[in-house]
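Z., the sequence and structure:
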Amino acid sequence: MKTLIVVAHPNPASFNKNGIVETVISALKEKNHEIIVRDLYELNFNPVLSGADFGAFASGNAPADIQTERDFIS
């Protein structure tokens, strides 16, 4: 099975990342899952939509950074 983990925490030493995410990864590996982790802070993903983002959506397109994450979800 394929599993996507999306994490967004500003502190790389946080319990979220080093406790929860690592525990989930370990448990899924034991079950032979294919795991992809997307750390939005590591990727410098900006969650705030800009005017250009709205313009892209209005013309039927998604901005490249958003489309990349959509593709991972799909």
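Residues 8 and 61 are 24 Å apart (CA to CA). The helical segments are 15-30, 51-58, 64-73.

Let me know what you think.
H.
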